[in-house]
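Worked example 4.2. Below are the chains of a multi-component assembly; read each line carefully before continuing.
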Amino acid sequence: MATKDVPPRGDRKMQQRLARGEAAALGEMYDRFASLVHGLAHRVLGDEKAADTLTREVFAHLWEHPETYDPGKGPLRTWVAGVTHRLAVQRLRDSETAALPEGGGSLADLERKVRRASVAARADYIVHSMPAPLRRALDLAYFQRRDYRQTAVDLGVTEDEARRRLRLGLQLLSTAHDAGTPPGHGGAV
Amino acid sequence: MSGAGRFEASDGPEGEEGRGGGVGGEGSSRRGPEGHGASGARRGDGHPGGGSAGDGTGHTPPGAEAPGPDVPPRIPTPRASVEDNGLVLPDLAGLAPAPLDLPHDVLKSLLGAWALAACSAAETAAVEDHLGSCGGCADEARRLREAVGLLHQHESLDLDPGLRARVLESCLERRPPRIPVPEWAAPYDAETARLDALLQDFGDAEWHAPVRLRWFAADTARNRRTTVAGVIAHLLSVDGLIAVALGLEDPLAEVAGKAEQHAAGPAGRTEAYWRTSRFPPTRSVRGPWREQSHSLVRTTSFTGGHAGGLAVSYGDFDLPLHDAMLDRAFECWVHAEDIAEAVDYPYQPPAPRHMNRMIDLAARMLPSVLADRRRRGLAAPGRGRHLGLAGEPGRSLRLEIEGSGGGEWLIPLDSPAARGSADFEVAHVALDGSEFCQLAAGHVSPAEAAAGQAGDREAIRDVLFAVASLSRM
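Applying the procedure described above to all two chains together yields the following C-alpha cells:
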C-alpha cells in the first residue's frame, strides 16, 4: 500500500500558487477541500451555520498563510484537515465557555465535550483518508452488516485478507483517540 | 445464504450467549435485533436451514435440516470454518459447543472482525475465551471495540451552493489577489464549480441517466439523446475550443486522435468525441472535464486584461475570449439544468450578476445574428437608416429582462454597426430572466415564449427567433 506521507505531486505547486496570490488557486482549493472542511467542522460543531462560518475562516487561513504548509511533512489534505480541526475545536471551546453559566458549570464537562467532538472529527478524517480497500471492508462489515466471510467474497479477497483489512482499519481508526493535531495519520499504512 | 446461517446460529441458545457476551457495546445492541429479525423471517419462509443444506457437504445435522417450529437450528456456522479446521461437529445433544481451538495468530487476526461482530458465533466464543488469558489481545480488543464506536455514517451534506462565492469573496477581501480571476471568467468558474458539486455524489445510475439535449436550428426544435456522462463529454469537447485557442491541450486529440482534431464547431466536436471514444462516456469523463475547466480559469487569469485580441473559433463564427468564456458559462448552466432535471435534483439559476453578464452577451450578439438571418431570408429586410455609418443610432427594440440579473438593452435591428437608440425605439419586449435564458437555450420555442410585447410585431418576432437561434447542441 502506498505510503500516505508523500505529498501528491502538485501539492507544493499549489502552495506556490497560493503564495503568489493566484485567485484561481484558491478556487481550486475550495473545490478540492470544501466538503472535507465543512464535514469536519460540522462534526465538531454540530451546526450547519457554524460549519459554514468556520469553513470561511479555514479558507481565509489557508489563503493568508500558505507558507505554514510544509510539503515535507505530508500532503496538503492533511494540513487542511489539521487547520480545520484546530480552528473548529477552538471555536467549540470558545462557544462552550461563553455558554457556561455564571460561576457554575463544570469545566470537566466542557473538556469532555470538546474532547469527544475532537476525537469524532479525527475519526472521520481517518476513515476519509484511509486506503480505499480498508474503508471498503469497514463499510461492508459495519454499515452493510456483512460478516468477514461475506466481506471477503464481496471484495474478491481471501478470508485472511478480509480479517486483516478489518483489523488494520480499526487499528488506524483507534488512533483517533491519540491526542494531538493534525488528526491522526495512522502511521501503520 | 451464509448470512442466514450466521443469524440462525446466533438464534441458538449457545449462539445467543456467545454473541451477547462477544459483542458488547454499540455493536451488539445495533446488530442483535436485526440479526434475530432476519433469521426469524428466514425460518418462516419454509426453507429452514436452506443455507446449510444447500452446500452439499453432507454433514448437516438433522437438527439443522428440519427444526420444529420453535426449535432453532443449532449448527455453529459458517460451516466452512468448522471443516477447514478439521474439527468434529459439536454434539447436538450436548450444551454449548466447545470453543474452536484456534492458534494464537488466527485469534489475533480475528480481533477486527470480532470487534465488528463480523465473525461466526463459534469464532466469537473462541476469541473471547482467548481474551481471558491473553493480555496483549485483550488490550487490542478493547482498543478496536472503542474504534468501532467511532464509525459514523457519512452523511452527504450538500454544501450550500452559495457558500463558495461567500468564502472566496471574504478571502479575497482579506488578502487581495495578485492574480485575480478576470471578471468575465468568474461566471464560468462559478458555474463549473456548481455543476461539479452536483456530480459529486452521483452513482452509476445517475451517470447513465438519459438526458435529452434540446436546441433550435433553422427555426426548428431539435433534440439529441445522450446520458449525463455524455453531457459532460459534450461540455469537455466544446470547452476544448477555448483550450485550443489558449494553446492548451485539445481534449479531442486524446480521444479521437489526429484525424478528428479538426472537427469544427461545438456539434462537430461533440459528435466526433462521442463517435470516436472507444466506450460510451462514463463517470471517468468528470476528471478531464474538471481539470480542463480549472486550467481554463487559471490560464485566463494569466492572460488577464490582454485577452482582447484573442479570438475563439466556433467553426462558423468567432467570439472574443471573454465572450467565449461567458458563452461557456451559460452552456454549463443550461446543461447542468438538463442533468439536474434528468436525475430529479433541484438546481438554482446563476448568481444575478453572472446571469446579467450572460444575458448581456446574448443581447450583444443579437444584431449580428439578425443580420445573418436577414441575409438568409429568415428575418424581415432592414429598413431606413441601416446603411448609415457605424455608430449611428438605428431602429431599435427595447429588450427588458425582469428579475434579478435582468436589465434593459436596446437592440439595433437593422445593422450590427448601428447603435441602439431610445429615440428610434419601435418595439418593446419584456421577459423574465429565466424565460429569456430558456429561450436562448432553445428550451422554449420563440412562438411560445411568455413575453410581454408592444410595438412592431415583425421586429419582435425577428428578435425572439434570433434569440432562439443562439442555441445549439
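Take a moment to check your reading of the output against the notes. The first helix of chain A runs from residue 11 to 19. Residues 130-181 of chain A form one domain.
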